[in-house]
Design a protein that fits this description.
Elements: E1 2-7, H1 8-12, E2 25-33, E3 36-41, E4 48-51, H2 54-74
């Protein structure tokens, strides 16, 4: 298995100036499965994809990450909600 670091700014806002955005780094773990490169973002559970090349895998991982981020924001009720920190035992 190989790893490469990806920057959140590449994933979320590729057209903005680097000075305008904060950066968060992710690790893309990937491996060969037959003719495909398969990978996942180590720090974001559920973000997985595949591609015929590593570059195609990176583009597909970006799409998968955007779908997860968009979905998280889609279901937040407008107006009346509360937030609280909570611990989850591992």
């Amino acid at each position: 298995m190989a790893s490469v670091t990806m920057v959140e700014s590449e994933i979320l806002m590729p057209r903005r100036k680097k000075s305008e955005i904060k950066q968060r780094y992710f690790t893309l773990d990937y491996w060969r499965d037959g003719r495909w490169y398969v990978g996942r973002l180590r720090e974001v559970p559920g973000v997985m994809s595949q591609g015929r090349t590593v570059d195609q895998l990176k583009r597909n991982i970006i799409d998968a990450y955007r779908m997860i981020v968009d979905e998280e924001h889609m279901y937040i009720p407008s107006g009346n909600y509360e937030s609280t920190p909570m611990g989850i035992p591992l």
